Amino acid sequence: MPEERAKILPFYLVIDVSWSMDGEQLQTANNIMPELSDALAKDPILTDKIRFALIDFAGDAQVRLPLCDVLDPDVVLPGLACRGATSYAAAFRLLRKEIEANVTQLKADGFSVHRPAVFFLTDGVPTDTEDEWTSAFRELTEYDRQAGVGFAMYPNVIPFGVKDADPQVLRRLVHPSTGAKQSRMYLMNEGNNPAQAIAGMAEIMVSSVLSSGANLAGGDSGLIHPDPADLPSGITAANADGDFL
Predict the structure, then answer these.
(1) Cα 37 to the chain's mean position, in Å?
(2) Per-residue pLDDT reduced to its tens digit, 105-118
């Protein structure tokens, strides 16, 4: 019998670094990757199952940390700085390019690759036209399995919104939006402090990563979301219909 392939779950942390994120919000967002790294260091068996990439976006999108094992001693976690506008389209286009290249390489390296997960953190609405960002999002997420048309490596997308992020926009980014494996979004409650909300969202990301990695290590698969009852204060989970969980 052929040897079973080792399973890998790629995560992509995508952070809005437009000028509205300047100050305490970006400082807190810069702590997310170190917190994830510290959490994985306490349970290193999970690092065999998890890979991470960091992308930031403003008027453009940039890969700040290529997909990697964050506990690799050669990995240096980058700091983010604010610039420009809020191009969702740029982020989605770069994500598609990176996911396609990364999944192809992981498979060539002998891994079985679980569907990637995207944590998409923003504090505002897209400055692209609606046609631009929705078209880029469709190119990232649409796939017709029967016809074999679209992007077969499409990711699970989990939006996180603070401050001026529009829930009506973010719910359109929840993917998959229906079915047994439907995703969800996480929103800052009105009146909450954005930096505190980002810190709470980092807890949600860490919880999801650890639970999902443990799930893979146990022989199961699937992205795990925290129980809505266990969310940090000031944050609410909702599905693509906008129904609070």
Answers:
(1) 15
(2) 999 999 999 999 99
Written as one letter, the residue type at 188 is: M
The pLDDT assigned to 121 comes to 98
For 161-185, write each residue's pLDDT tens digit: 999 999 999 999 999 998 888 899 9
CB neighbours of residue 191 within 10 Å: 6
pLDDT, mean over the chain: 93
Question: Token pair of 61, please?
Answer: 């999108």
Asked whether the predicted pLDDT for residue 245 surpasses 70, the reply is no
What secondary structure does DSSP assign to 93-124, as a single string? HHHHHHHHHHHHHHHHTT-EEPPPEEEEEESS
Residue 2 located in a structural domain: no
Please name which of 165, 159, 208 lies closest in space to residue 36, comparing C-alpha atoms: 208
Q: Residue 217 corresponds to which tokens in the numbers above?
A: 């290590």
> Which tokens in the block code for residue 164?
């001026």
Q: Indicate whether 208 belongs to any domain.
A: yes
Q: Mind listing the pLDDT tens digit for each residue in 19-62? A: 999 999 999 999 999 999 999 999 888 888 999 999 999 999 99
Residue 243 lies inside a defined structural domain of this protein? no
Least Cα distance to 7 among 147, 143, 114 occurs for 114
Q: Give, in order, the Cα–Cα distances in Å from 142 to each of 47, 57, 175, 236.
A: 29, 22, 10, 27
Q: Which DSSP state fits 182?
A: -
Strand, helix or coil at 170?
A: helix
Give the relative orientation of helices 32-41 and 194-217 as an angle to the nearest 10 degrees.
30
The pTM assigned to this predicted structure is 0.95
CATH number for the domain harbouring residue 25: 3.40.50.410
User: How many domains does the chain fold into?
Assistant: 1
Ramachandran category for residue 217: left, alpha or beta (phi over 0 → left; psi -120 to 50 → alpha): alpha
